Amino acid sequence: MGSSKQPLHIGILSSPGLGHIIPVVTLANRLATFHNVSVTVFVITSGSSLAETEILKSANKSKMIDVVEIPGVDISNLIDSNTKIVTQLCILIRETLHVVKSVISAMKHLLDALIVDIFTTEALPIAKEFELPNYVYIPTNAWFTAMTVYCPFLDKEIEGQYVDQKEPLKIPGCKPVRPEDVNDPMLDRNEQDYREYLKVHGIGFCLSDGILMNTWEDAETGSLKALRENDILKAIVKSPVYPVGPLIRHDQQIIDGRSGDDDGNNSVLNWLDKQIPNSVLYISFGSGGTLSSKQLTELAFGLELSHQKFIWVVRPPSEVGADKSFFTTGNRGDNTPEYLPEGFLTRTKDFGLVIQMWTDQTRILSHPSVGGFLTHCGWNSSIESITNGLPMIAWPLYAEQRQNATMLTEELRVAVRPKVLPTKKVVEREEIEQLVRMVMQYKDGKELKENVKKLKMSAEKALSVGGSSHDSMCQVLKDIEKRSIHGYKNINV
């Protein structure tokens, strides 16, 4: 790691939500395990998700990292029932920053650097005040990062809504982005979500000493080259870009809000133990994704028609947004799901297993019986699938998932997808049956399986000692050692 006699002590600040907390904890574990770094993870918590609570409880048991929970302040007077998720996140974090500052200031073991996630970039001035080297961790890919970097330029160049444009949005040096694939805050430029998106992400690219991304060189050669060499993007991203991924969890998490070692989790693994290799399709829409009643019904019938074995993590439907479970993952009970088609559980009992709310995804995806993944295309889930060599059915719902789905299907060619975005039109049972067979049956899915196998091997090589991502992380730590001066110990807060 370097010549320091004492291990570096790095703080990482996470925003609420499993999709943010999990990659931050994973980064922390990587630094501690493979680079001998002392890590303190600061988590701004929402206080409304049982799954979030259990994840943090599990992380706190680790001897490798320290987890400091910072309860988010009450923002009920600043939002209403129509306030969207990104805006809620940004307001919650902004209002809690004074607590973050106090917690860092009171630490006995001084930090050598602070890493913030993509939604906590407004904490970067705190790091500057404490004279700490500071970095932004973007737990997704370089193509998304490039579009986000360039968004202020698009904001000036394009009139009207992005989604109404007839031509793809051109990103210097990168594959263009289809208007329908822009991330959620860009769907409506009149919303506060869009203004928050521009503000919070812009801060990160202007103020940080470096940008870490959960991707790797072989997966995104073109986009990484653009971020490093394109004159327009370089004028915005003045700091180095460090691809350090793909970083994934290995031995957690929870099922139905309980620890991963309970009877419920064992029953899932026992069921998988009885299946033949590569025969089971795993279906999950992540920590926050929900389907409409009609779409949930069509998916159920599609699985039934396919006669392929499956494990489906199902949650109650929502008619008011695909991300409505973002802050409440794991909070429902485990009664018989009445929202599934009548008789579905009985008719599929010999080849299907339904799990409610939340499960130990890492163990399921790594099980030899699992041969494919129907996924919402959150980046955490996407790389967990790739690193387990599993082809995917791409089913994007919200955030940057539509862009991820396009990357998985068209660039990396490790996934298939419905003909029309699931957020635009209900995918009917016959098409679902076709997609399932395409991924799970050897003849149709052969090319997908070969592509994902190659990508898995390149990911393993990147993370190995001497690999591109391992070396990139070493460069980050060398930069921290060079910059670190324990500058904040005399500051009065």
State the major sheet: 7 strands, parallel
Rg is 22 Å
Estimate percent helicity.
40-55%
Number of strands: 15
Instruction: For the record, give the distance between the C-alpha atoms at the N and C termini, rounded to a whole number.
Output: 32 Å
**Order of strands across the biggest sheet?**
3-2-1-4-5-6-7
Number of domains: 2
- Estimate the mean pLDDT confidence: 90
Continuous helix count = 17
Q: Which residues form runs of ≥5 with pLDDT under 50?
A: 252-261, 487-493
The CATH architecture of the largest domain is 3-Layer(aba) Sandwich
Q: Please name the fourth-level CATH homologous superfamily of the largest domain.
A: Glycogen Phosphorylase B
Indicate the CATH topology of the largest domain: Rossmann fold
General shape? globular
Beta-strand share of residues: 5-15%
State the CATH class of the largest domain: Alpha Beta
Helical/strand content category: alpha/beta
